[in-house]
Amino acid sequence: MRGKKRKVMDDGRDQRFDKRVHFSVRLMKSASTYKDIVVRKKDGFTQILLSTRSTHKNPLNREVMNEIQSALDRAAVDDSKFVLLSAVGSVFCCGLDFDNFVKHLKYNRKRASVKLVDTIKNFVNSFIEFQKAIIVSVNGLAIGLGASILPLCDVVWANEKAWFQTPYTRFGQSPGGCSTITFPKIMGRAAANETLINGWKIHAQEACAKGLVSQVFGPKSFTQEVMVRIQEITSCNSFVLENSKALVRYNMKIELKQVNERECEVLKKIWVSAQGMEYMLKYVQNKIHTF
């Protein structure tokens, strides 16, 4: 009984802490430029934090994806050596904002689907084309596109309590974020099929063992461990960092862009179809949560 009371108190304290963090980041300079992300210009790198106003789950709608793309465009031409992508709160990203998408799709499905799919395609391409390193610190769960984009980044660190899931078929969607090629290459075809088709949930340690995550750190030391390694990367020469990434990614860019194009075409067909729209509406109305 005493343990249960303590848990309630801890949860309340965490929520208050999250709200204080959310409030403090909103007071920063980037609040006047961005509404659903916070951009911190640090010594040697740019930090992009997901911090959506509507929910703590940090979903990806058109506005959020456009803001992230804009922040990457700015970091690409300034003196940042790399980008650190992270999130405010206890959730990294819950994937596409289906509530938001349904509002657009139910009025003019064909025209809206083209606009929404183009937004996703451009968003994914911004990760593929970004020439500087992208480091990701995953503080909590990553769902759908929030997990699929991770292999497009260069280093992924995860909190031990984080977990990953791409339950596309449960949402009535097709896989995205180039996961149809990156997941099989990283974890093998069988494990990729379990993840992309069956919606297999992967916890941080397993994700690390399968190659989706670079390193896993304990929840208490997570932020400190990340910043220690960030400082190490910051001390590297920017010319060397950029050219090292270019060598690693040299043979991948064209293939990834082609895969992104194919995935988006399939997604567009699903959204235009009556069956696809019906399933998406059913998901939103019934609130079939997977986490």
List the helices and strands and how they pair.
Layout: H1 2-26, E1 37-41, E2 45-50, H2 62-77, E3 82-87, E4 91-93, H3 98-105, H4 109-129, E5 133-138, E6 141-143, H5 145-148, E7 155-159, E8 163-165, H6 168-171, H7 179-187, H8 189-196, E9 202-203, H9 204-210, E10 215-217, H10 222-234, H11 238-249, H12 253-272, H13 274-286
Parallel strand pairs: 2-3, 3-5, 4-6, 5-7, 6-8, 7-10
Antiparallel strand pairs: 1-2, 8-9
Helix pairs in contact: 2-4, 3-13, 4-12, 7-8, 12-13
- Which strand order spans the largest sheet, edge to edge or round the barrel? 1-2-3-5-7-10
* Fraction of residues in helix: 40-55%
CATH superfamily: 2-enoyl-CoA Hydratase, Chain A, domain 1
What is the global morphology?
globular
Task: State which percent range the strand residues make up.
Answer: 5-15%
Q: How would you classify the helix and strand content by structural class?
A: alpha/beta
Overall number of structural domains: 1
Which class in CATH terms?
Answer: Alpha Beta
The number of distinct helices, counting runs of at least 4 residues, comes to 13
Q: Mind explaining what this structure looks like?
A:
The protein is α/β, with parallel strands linked by helices and 291 residues long. It has a single domain, classed as Alpha-Beta Complex (2-enoyl-CoA Hydratase, Chain A, domain 1), CATH 3.90.226.10. The protein is 55% helix and 14% strand. It contains 13 helices and ten strands. It has helices spanning 2-26, 62-77, 98-105, 109-129, 145-148, 168-171, 179-187, 189-196, 204-210, 222-234, 238-249, 253-272, 274-286, and strands at residues 37-41, 45-50, 82-87, 91-93, 133-138, 141-143, 155-159, 163-165, 202-203, 215-217. The strands form two sheets. The chain has a six-stranded mixed sheet with strand order 1-2-3-5-7-10, with helices on both faces. Helix 2 (62-77) runs parallel beside helix 4 and helix 7 packs across helix 8 (189-196). The protein is globular. Residues 1-13 have low confidence and may be disordered.
